[in-house]
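Q: I'm a student working through a structural biology exercise. My instructor gave each of us a protein and asked us to get a predicted structure, then write a short paragraph describing it. Mine is ubiquitinyl hydrolase 1. I'm not confident about reading structure output yet, so if you can add a plain explanation after the tokens, that would really help. Here is the sequence I was given:
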Amino acid sequence: MNRATSDSKTDIGPGNNNIRIYHERQSKQLCALHALNNLFQSPKAFTKHELDTICKELAPDARIFNPHRSVLGLGCYDVNVIIAALGKKGYDVIWFDKRK
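A: Happy to help. First, here is the predicted structure for ubiquitinyl hydrolase 1. I'll explain a few features afterward.
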């Protein structure tokens, strides 16, 4: 485990056949960032700066309060940021609402 970033790689599979799983542990309110990096199995798939930029793109007129992240800008990104981030990597998201 890398203590500086709380990242880890774990061997899995029968006999640990060199299958490595990248996992970023939760830090602050950056769960969307960690989930995306875990999904892409890379600590560099996305950065906080990139997600903040997406927030600005989603709400270009928001000067003080951006509805797509926490008021203090510490993370807590909404699902629209995750969907837009995945779109930038060429992936589509199908929204599923169990209530319907």
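A: Here are two points you could use in your paragraph. Confidence is low (pLDDT under 50) at residues 1-5. Residues 48-58 form the longest helix (11 residues). It's a good idea to check both against the output above yourself.
Q: Great, thank you!
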